[in-house]
Amino acid sequence: SRSLNLAVIPGDGIGQEVVAQGLKVLSSVLPQDVKLETREYDLGAQRWHRTGETLPDAELTDLKGHDAILLGAIGDPTVPSGVLERGLLLKLRFAFDHYVNLRPSKLFPNTATPLAGRPEIDFVVVREGTEGPYTGNGGSLRTGTPAEVATEVSVNTAYGVERVVRDAFERANSRPRKKLTLVHKNNVLVYAGHLWKNIFDAVAAEYPDVTTDYLHVDAATIFFVTQPERFDVIVTDNLFGDILTDLAAAVTGGIGLAASGNINPTGTFPSMFEPVHGSAPDIAGTGKADPTATILSVALLLRHLGFEPEAVRIEEAVTADLAGRDGTVRTTDEIGDALAARVAG
Ligand code: NAD
Ligand code: IPM
Ligand code: MN
Question: What ipTM does the predicted assembly reach?
Answer without folding.
Answer: 0.99
